[in-house]
Design brief:
Length: 330
């Protein structure tokens, strides 16, 4: 009898593969317990201590959520960080907390990325504090759910100004100064899996994030000669307080999200932070123009035409197989 081992569990064909409580109260093909047990998030920092020593990292939207997580990881790895957003009080609190945790300086600089003049002033301030950065992470974002027929011009502009224009203003301002100073750098943008597929009800965000990806791919081709590389992370659902309060205020959609993620859980900010650190580090210097989808398998499950067959019960499979066997070829 064939036996295979998964983690500390041993499974044999025909043994405990069906359980009525796991799927809709019916006998359903199931390989073991809920799959999230096999994919626990790793704790801690992935890269070696000192990976970013003597490096400067600039992170937009660095005060909360994913931005805070990425700043924390880069600071733990030795980087001197500058975090920027509109809310200076939030930035200052985050900077103090991370600095006290890691022992490395984190600077808070107020910046409205929608305003190119504000971006220029922010970069001036950064240059006086730390010099030009080695790592730039464009993470500032805005989003809300809305039927597209209810969108106003102002609603469209409020998202695209932050996501697309803000990323462009930061990237171009820093890129030009880096080129003038003959300094190389790693640029990273945080987008979303629906930048590739599109998505209803978040059309401004989907459009703007897709634009960011094309911007970065284009500059990867054009500015490699200046020592600049550009990469993109497409996160799937990551449970951060800010994003979920806007996009799932009632919590009604979280269960549906879990149902369409093959690994059976949401992502953690620290997981994105470890990936971002790797992509921004000297371990990834041959990576440019790359888009990494990081979503627990959500995209491929939603894309496959027949993937909903995972919900078919064992009894239904028997009926279907009998029908298939009884069908004569033409």
């Amino acid at each position: 009898m064939a036996v295979f081992v998964k983690g500390a569990r041993v499974f044999r064909p025909g043994a405990t593969l069906f359980h009525k409580s796991w799927f809709h109260g019916s006998g359903v093909l199931q390989s073991g317990p809920p799959q999230a047990e096999f994919f626990p998030p790793a704790e801690g920092v992935m890269l070696p201590t000192g990976t970013f020593s003597n490096r400067v990292a600039f992170i937009t939207g660095g005060g909360t959520g994913l931005g805070r997580a990425m700043t924390t990881t880069l600071s733990q790895l030795g980087a001197q960080c500058i975090i920027a957003s509109r809310k200076l009080d939030v930035l200052q609190q985050t900077a103090e907390e991370i600095s006290s945790q890691t022992g490395n300086r984190v600077h808070a600089v107020q910046c409205d990325v929608r305003d190119p003049q504000a971006v220029s002033r922010c970069v001036d301030q950064m240059e006086s504090l730390t010099g030009l950065p080695d790592v730039i992470i464009n993470n500032a974002a805005g989003n809300f759910v809305c039927p597209s027929e209810r969108l106003s011009a102002n609603a469209w502009k409020s998202i695209t100004d932050i996501v697309l224009n803000g990323t462009a203003f930061v990237t171009l301002e820093l890129g030009k100064r880096l080129i003038q100073n003959q300094k190389g750098a790693s640029f990273l943008a945080i987008t979303t899996i629906y930048a590739e597929s599109g998505s209803g009800f978040v059309v401004p965000s989907a459009s703007a994030k897709a634009g960011v990806e094309v911007l970065y791919k284009s500059l990867a081709a054009e500015w490699g000669r200046y020592g600049h590389r550009f990469n993109i992370i497409q996160p799937g659902p990551i449970k951060t307080k800010g994003a979920f309060s806007r996009l799932d205020p009632t919590g009604a959609f979280e269960k549906g999200m879990l149902d369409r993620i093959p690994t059976g859980r949401l992502g953690k900010p620290a997981e994105i932070a470890n990936l971002a650190a790797y992509m921004s580090s000297d371990y990834a210097t041959w990576m440019s123009g790359t888009v990494i989808r990081f979503d627990g398998g959500e995209y491929v499950l939603m894309a496959g035409e027949f993937n909903e067959l995972r919900k078919v019960t064992a009894d239904q499979w028997k009926v279907m197989e009998a029908m298939i066997r009884s069908t004569k070829g033409s």
